[in-house]
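Translate sequence into structure tokens.
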Amino acid sequence: MTSKKSRSAKNKKILFVSSEAHPLIKTGGLGDVSGALPLALKELKQDVRLILPAYRDAIRHGGPYTIASLVFQPDIHPIRLLEGRLADSDITLWLVDIPSLFDRPGNPYLGPDGHDWPDNALRYGMFSRAVTAIALNQAGLDWHPDIVHCNDWQTGLIPPLLSLQNPRPATVFTIHNLAYQGLFPAAQFQELGLPSELWGMHGLEFYDQLSFIKGGLLYADMINTVSPTYAKEICTPELGCSLDGLLRSRADRLVGILNGADYSEWDPRHDSHLSHHYSPDTLQGKAANKAALQKELGLQRDPQIPLIGFVGRLVAQKGIDLIMAMLGNLLSQEVQFVILGTGDKDFEKALRTLAEHYPRRCHVKIGFSEALAHRIEAAADMFLMPSRYEPCGLNQIYSMRYGTLPIVRRTGGLADTVVDSSAGLATATGFVFDEPTAAALSEAVQRALDLYRGNPQGWLKLMHNAMGRDYSWRHSASAYLDLYQQALAHQEQANSPKAV
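Result follows.
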């Protein structure tokens, strides 16, 4: 695609491909990463272009847009490319505009009934074809990348499609959560018009289904996931989601890079969602935020009562069942609990019932509010993340910056970021437990409560330790540049003429 001189140069052309990006559209951590990592790469003098589907909300929340090109125009689903800028940046943003597939309300992946859109294979298959055309400079843009950085199953067809081309750009595939794989009936392979050489057990076939994520894992020049510990965990049968064998076979191409935090959005010094700003030297502001949230949510207004927060999906993966199993006993103490999230309907109903029984000690908000999430982080004394697995997790990183000590299970990125109190007051930043049981969680919570009540100076030391940790994207972006260099080396080898 480009000369060896340009490929080895410090500045690279990067096409960053995602199915969501904050602030245009976000359902979870992928949106946070896709909105922040391109900015960090840009600060490192890289030529980054961000591309995602032209969802209705993405068009409404961004813009203005111009028509950059018609990528290609089949009879049923004409495709055009819209160009704009990512909010408050000079990063070029491209939206793949296929109105029949993406001009829909709400969630990118789910219909109004809460189930997957039935044509998701077609939606993200067409998106992948458009991105492939752009990556090969076949869209009339006169720009072609050195690196195509794909994220999660929605982009998993891009590496295999590009693998059939020579020359081609290098490909990187990032796993944000291996459990979400993009599995569809085998018949979809033919319906998407995919090349026959990509089918089979050594291709996109996965137990008689079409697997989008397998395309990224099998064909990308380099693979990474979002924490070093999770990179090891997914190579085991316990967390490999039946893909551990494939991942072990590509272990020389798999690395773990910890997600960063966007401190322009998540920092109590200047958080626009807070009524009181604070820093390690001015912690009175944190107490003021706690009092404000207690008043807002109808909790007893008492600065001495420990306030514990949870923000996340109400599903078993996040350990919400562990929380519920110990919450009744916990609320018999002088303690307050605030939950913000949505998920399993049975969990939602049970949590609402619990909040009705303890209106002055427990508040449950079903749904999501970005502003309330920030206020909880600032007001809470502790933050629960008892996940059964957690590829990286961001809330524990946010919590530390806000002086809200995380209580986490030792898994994935939680293990890589939180230092347990048993390490000593000089280095600890939170509380860590091992077994995914309510008893283990309860013991960790009690350790936190004992320190909070019995050793205020020790608690203050942990707060300062946590607030001093730097998990900014600057460090992670540098690691991605190293990953890109490795991908380019493998790509050049793949593109070189084969020996006869």
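Note: The chain has 19 helices and 18 strands.
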